[in-house]
Specification:
Number of strands: 6
Helix content: 40-55%
Strand content: 15-25%
Oligomer: single chain
Order of helices and strands: HEEHEEHHEEHH
Radius of gyration: 20 Å
Shape: globular
Structural class: alpha+beta
Distance between the termini: 40 Å
Largest sheet: 4 strands, antiparallel
C-alpha cells in the first residue's frame, strides 16, 4: 500500500470515529467510503430549552439534556394503552422515547442521542405525547387501532422483526 492509500485509510478512520454511528452507512463499492444518511439536529441552547419547557405541561421536567415525563394510570391496561398511543406520533417524527413501564407507571425519557442532548425534535415529540394526556379510553383505543395498522403494514412489507426480535 502506498503512502496515499495509508493516508486515505486514516482519513476514513477519523471520519468513522468523529461522526455519529447512526448517521453513517458504509458504502465500500463507491469512491466515498461513508455516506451521510440524515442531518443530526442542532442542540438547543439553555434559553431556548427553558422557553420550550414553558410550553409543555408542568408534568414534564428536564435536566438540560433530556425531557422526562412520569404518569400513574388506574391499571396496567390503561398504562399500556397510553404507551401504544405513542406509536403514531413517534413513528411520524421518526423519533422514539425511552420508555419504562412498571405495572401502572410509565416513565418517558426523550433526548436526541445523535446530537447529545435536546433538540427541537424532542420538544415536538413531547408536545404530541402531551396531547395524549387526559384522552378518553375511546380515543386511546383509536390510537391502538392506528398502531396496529402500522405494525400490520410492517409485517406486510416483510419486516418480521417488528413482531419478534432476532435473538
Amino acid at each position: 500500500m502506498n503512502t496515499f492509500g495509508i493516508l486515505a485509510g486514516l482519513v476514513s478512520l477519523t471520519l468513522a470515529i468523529s461522526l455519529p454511528a447512526k448517521a453513517l452507512a458504509i458504502t465500500p463499492s463507491s469512491n466515498q467510503p461513508y455516506k451521510l444518511l440524515k442531518d443530526v439536529p442542532t442542540l438547543l441552547d439553555e434559553a431556548t430549552i427553558q422557553q420550550r419547557m414553558a410550553e409543555l405541561p408542568s408534568t414534564w421536567t428536564t435536566d438540560g439534556t433530556t425531557l422526562f415525563y412520569e404518569a400513574t394510570f388506574k391499571d396496567f391496561v390503561t398504562a399500556m394503552a397510553f404507551v401504544n398511543a405513542m406509536v403514531e406520533p413517534a413513528e411520524a417524527l421518526d423519533h422514539h422515547p425511552d420508555i419504562t413501564i412498571r405495572y401502572n407507571q410509565v416513565t418517558l425519557a426523550i433526548t436526541t442521542h445523535d446530537a447529545g442532548g435536546l433538540t427541537e425534535l424532542d420538544f415536538q415529540l413531547a408536545a404530541r405525547i402531551a396531547a395524549l394526556q387526559g384522552q378518553t379510553p375511546d380515543s386511546i383505543t383509536s390510537c391502538l387501532t392506528k398502531s396496529s395498522a402500522i405494525l400490520q403494514n410492517r409485517v406486510y412489507r416483510g419486516e418480521t422483526s417488528a413482531i419478534m426480535p432476532t435473538l
